[in-house]
Amino acid sequence: MCGRVNVHDNEGVKQLLEAMNMQAKPNRAPRFNIAPTQPLDVVRYRQGLTWESMSWGVSVSARGKRGQVITKRVPNARDDKVWSSYLWRSLIPEQRVLIPVNGFYEWKRENKKLVQAFYITPSNHTAMFLAGIFREPKGGDSTPEVSIITTAANEEMRNVHDRMPVWLSSKNKAFVWLQETDKDSLSELIKATHKNSFVFTPVSNYVNKSTNEGPECMQVSGMKSFNY
């Protein structure tokens, strides 16, 4: 799962974009605790790379027990569902984006109880591209909606959570994700990164509340940062 991301360092994101030969200059105010339904900037390919804003979480509607229509936002798309689920299978062939972030948050649980929040960042980079899948606006909606693709956790991540976002860890992988049409080539990218890819920084429970913002979300707790 990936339910909260951090995009506080425009310079780190700019370096990612420059590696893709993009001239876009991120200038959004730093965000330390982005939650579903909030805006996410993405890289999209349509006759060239573009820098766009989308709303986090693809909407899905279903009927409740009393017959009323209930709409919820789905922030993550599981790797084992993107080619088969009715929600994703029409989107995955052509509607893919890169989501630049500096890091993401995850919570370790014991007996279903939250015991520690972690801010998770790339070991050797200041930002990274996560794999995204999006849907164009429907009806009166004006903003595309995007979800982050997740996969089974690698060895280090399993110590915190059983799933993790898909990180496209090279320029080549990023371009393949945006431009490829072959299902096997795309599926090959939707995998966990290798061991020692991330730094896990224990942070205070301030980040637990989605409305909390600011550098306090990254405040280190009593434990030291580490690589599993």
Account of the protein in words:
- The chain has helices spanning 10-19, 171-179, 183-189, and strands at residues 5-7, 31-34, 39-45, 49-56, 58-63, 69-74, 76-78, 96-101, 103-110, 113-122, 128-135, 145-152, 163-165, 167-168, 198-203.
- It is 11% helix and 39% strand.
- The longest helix has 10 residues, at 10-19.
- The strands form three sheets. It has a five-stranded antiparallel beta sheet, with no helix packed on it. A five-stranded mixed beta barrel has the order 3-4-12-11-8. A two-stranded antiparallel sheet has the order 5-6.
- The protein has one domain (5-218): SOS response associated peptidase-like (hypothetical protein yedk fold).
- The chain contains three helices and 15 strands.
- It has 228 residues and is mainly β.
- Strand 9 and strand 10 (113-122) form a beta hairpin.
Descriptive key words:
single chain; mainly beta; hypothetical protein yedk fold; 5-stranded antiparallel sheet; 5-stranded mixed barrel
